[in-house]
Amino acid sequence: MADKYLLAQVAPVLGAPLYIYSADGKLKEKIPGNSAGSENGLCNIIEKTTQDFPYIETDNEGITVCSMWDKTQEEYIVTGRVCLYGYYKKDGIYIPYCPKEQYTSAILILWKNISGENIGRNELWQKNLLLDRDIIRLLTKNIFQFQEEAVLHNFYPQELMELECIRNGDTEGLKQSIDNAVITEICHTSAGSVRNWKNTAVYIINAAARSAVEGGLSHDMAFVMCGTFISNIEENLSTQVKIEQAIREAEFAFAREVHNINSKGSSKNPLIAQVKDYIFGHIHDNIIISDVARHVGVSPNYLSEQFKVSEGMPLKQYIINEKIRNSEYLLKYTEYSLQEISSVCAFSSQSRFSDYFKRKNGITPSKYRKKYKKG
Fold first, then answer.
1. What is the pLDDT averaged over residues 295-307?
2. How far apart are CA 246 and CA 193, in angstroms?
3. SS3 of residue 83 by DSSP
4. Would you say 251 and 193 are in contact if contact means Cβ atoms under 8 Å apart?
């Protein structure tokens, strides 16, 4: 049986009201959320609701509703419309945003309260988005077509060789591997040739990112790089030759990052990897060693000792180096002033920023910008 107190707490988490309908489809009660919501058309979903599992409908925009049968009270609990992938506003219609993971948790809590049953997160969506039959049908068709055409596709050992070069930061080996590659057709994933290359780019760049992480690259850095390369291809490139070149540039970028890590003698200590991820994600903050230690669950002294042994430099120096490295990109590729860059990288003053920068690069930030500024 649905606990009204629990329903009142879940509605604001969803950001939308909850509606209680009688067995014959009449609205009995509305439990307000953070938005007003509208029950127009919601009663239609109860006709499709089974008594033994939550029923979810979601459209192409990610607008989602869920209906659950409360057999004890003989009534339906229906969630108001939310959008799983961002706020939706169109033609005067506003739908609140509730991230998919948050929405999933709310539905599982409600169902546990109503039915007493536990269901898994994947099970919830798997039973509501019946894709299995469609994908098996498509897979069968594509396997048949592949066997009929007998076309040579990507040479798997070649792919493994490239990924191994990225994992080792071996840029020269990667170059030789690509130069000596057997010319094959890419695997067809869509009807359009440009779309096909873009799909291939997503696969290759994600594989390169994973290999770079295995080689010691920060998970967060790999995530940002991967997203940037793929977004650029999706949004800015429209020819096959440019997409193919962008894929290669992404592979080399990952290999160079791993090479730089290896050249500094960095270890693959999981604790140090956590520290580097934290610093990467907080590079615009004033990073305090005690805060880093608290985040990774060790004492500041232990962390400092382990970092010095692993990386051959004090943690404080590494933080400064990373801030300077971040400022180098800002100087090359943005129009931010020196004062703004000093501030965004959380240096105590512009003069302190300039001092640290000159120690590392041998020239001032302004001279660096003039020398390396990209148009």
1. 94
2. 16
3. strand
4. no
Of 344, 358, 222, residue with least CA distance to 283:
344
For tokens 């977004």, what's the residue?
A: 231
Q: What's CA 146's distance to the chain center, in Å?
A: 32
- Please write the tens of the pLDDT for every residue from 263-299: 766 566 788 888 988 998 899 999 999 999 999 999 9
Compute CA 190 distance to the chain's CA centroid, rounded to the nearest angstrom. 24
Within 13 A of 148's CA, how many CA atoms are on the CB side? Answer: 6
**Strand positions, DSSP E, 84-237:** 88-90, 93-95
Q: What is the pLDDT of residues 149-160, one digit of tens each?
A: 555 455 667 788
φ/ψ (deg, to 5) at 256: -65, -40
**Is the C-alpha dihedral spanning 7, 9, 14, 15 positive or negative?**
positive
The CA distance from 217 to 209, in Å, is 9
The alpha-carbon radius of gyration of the chain (Å, integer) is 27
With the C-alpha atoms ordered 143, 147, 151, 153, is the resulting torsion angle positive or negative?
A: positive
Contact 45, 32 (CB under 8 A): no
8-state DSSP, 216: T
Q: For the residues of 31-67, what is the DSSP string, one character each?
A: E--SS----TTGGGGGGG--SSS-EEEE-TT-EEEEE
Angstrom CA distances, 28 to 37, 73, 114, 365, stand at: 16, 12, 17, 67
Q: What are the tokens at 200?
A: 């291939």
Q: Could you tell me the end-to-end alpha-carbon distance of the chain, in angstroms, rounded to an integer?
A: 64
Query: Could you give the dihedral angle defined by the CA atoms of residues 261, 264, 267 and 271, in that order, rounded to the nearest 10 degrees?
Result: -80
Tens digits of residue pLDDT in 190-203: 556 888 889 989 99
